[in-house]
Known about the structure:
The protein has 197 residues and is α/β, with parallel strands linked by helices. The protein has eight helices and ten strands.
Amino acid sequence: MKVTGVVQAGGKSTRMGGRPKALIQLGGRSIVERVVAALTPVVDDVLVVTNTPELYAFLGLPMVADVYPDHGSLGGIYSGLSAAGEIAFTVACDMPFLHPEVVRLVVARAGEGDVVIPRVGEQYETMHAAYGKACLPHIEERLRAGRLRIVGFFDRVRVVEIGEAEIARFRDPAVAFMNVNTPDELERARALAAELR
């Protein structure tokens, strides 16, 4: 079973003043390089979903454009899954503290359901999840209808949840799934990066 790591780098970064979050330096590397480094040992290959490929050419990875531009994260999941092997392990480009072992927890169970996803409290971590090809028609149906909530198609597929306690064995879920969306979150991430070395 071929698992492709899919890095979603299609956002507009509006809360960071428009500069691409993925390219911000954190602990001596860009956030996207940190993401790729966490994924690479666990998946078969890695690709980037982006509409600005010139920004990510330095990674030397295959890139695909959004099939449905301006359809948010659900559109990005669809685009990455369409281009992936059998399974797309999908992550956001602005998650600096991805942990390879937490990625491995999800990837190891990827064949058990159409979506394999961590759940923290009531929150699904939709941008740290494995999606199988069986999801494509259900996602596309929602994209065409303009219904972009990611979990909206979950009742149509087999969902396998990974519990908070399993994740916490490797990293505090609040850190593992942290996004850097705002200047305040960036400052917090810089402090954490220094601690986690």
